[in-house]
Amino acid sequence: MALSANMNVMIKAAEKAARSLLRDFGEVEQLQVSKKGPGDFVSAADKRAEEIIYEDLLKARPDYGFIMEESGEVKGNNPDFKWIIDPLDGTTNFLHGVPHWCISIALEEKGEIIAGLIFDPIKDDSFRAEKGSGAFIKNKRLRVSSRTVLEESLVTTGSPKRARENHAQFIAEYEAVQDKIPGLRRFGAAALDLAYVAAGRFEGFWERDLHSWDIAAGCIIAKEAGGIITDIDGRSNPVHRGSVIAGNPTIHEDLRTLIRNANASKDAA
Length: 269
Fold this sequence. Notes:
Layout: H1 5-31, H2 39-60, E1 65-68, E2 72-74, E3 81-89, H3 91-95, E4 102-109, E5 112-120, E6 125-130, E7 135-137, E8 140-141, E9 154-157, H4 167-180, E10 183-185, H5 190-198, E11 204-208, H6 212-224, E12 228-230, E13 243-247, H7 249-268
Parallel strand pairs: 1-3, 9-10, 9-11
Antiparallel strand pairs: 1-2, 3-4, 4-5, 5-6, 6-7, 7-8, 11-13, 12-13
């Protein structure tokens, strides 16, 4: 299958960064046994991967801007286009030698995500999508799950840090969803959660306190796979809104209703 020029650039950058991260991941597994721990090492690995991606994309598209987890925003000469990059989503998993993390790259045009790539080098899973062209893992078309019964669904979420003010809100939402969905999980990598919704592996996903680099690529991949993607208040284009709910049309609406009712009950208490 022929890929667009932009997607080829994204894949090349992700694969190059992945080679660096895989070498570092092997070292992290050894550092786990040390008293100091691998925290500083992983931070350096994260930054190295981001630099690799930045340099490759800048060379290919020198006028585009960037939004990056580690380096912040870099404005380009062409204000219409921005790369949105998370060089290592699932950092805590990486830190502990858990093989569930990924690289996320998205391309935004005039405020809309038009291309996304999520690459999981451990499993050699490459999820991708471009606006209007469908979503794929390698060359296989992705479709969201057709399950419509909450009790039969597998749903994932992510929790805020305990010190944050909205931790009580998360607990209320979590308990409300868990009451209806026994298959509730937390895997610690929002980009992969969205990719798995696109692949039909999960029926739904929701999380608050997110940044654009956490979900930009995953949102277009899940959308192009037939999913409904909004923020928790139901607004479309959630990439810069700080929260997301994703799922097939039925599970998305049922999940949003559970969360809305949980918050209403908490506010009334």
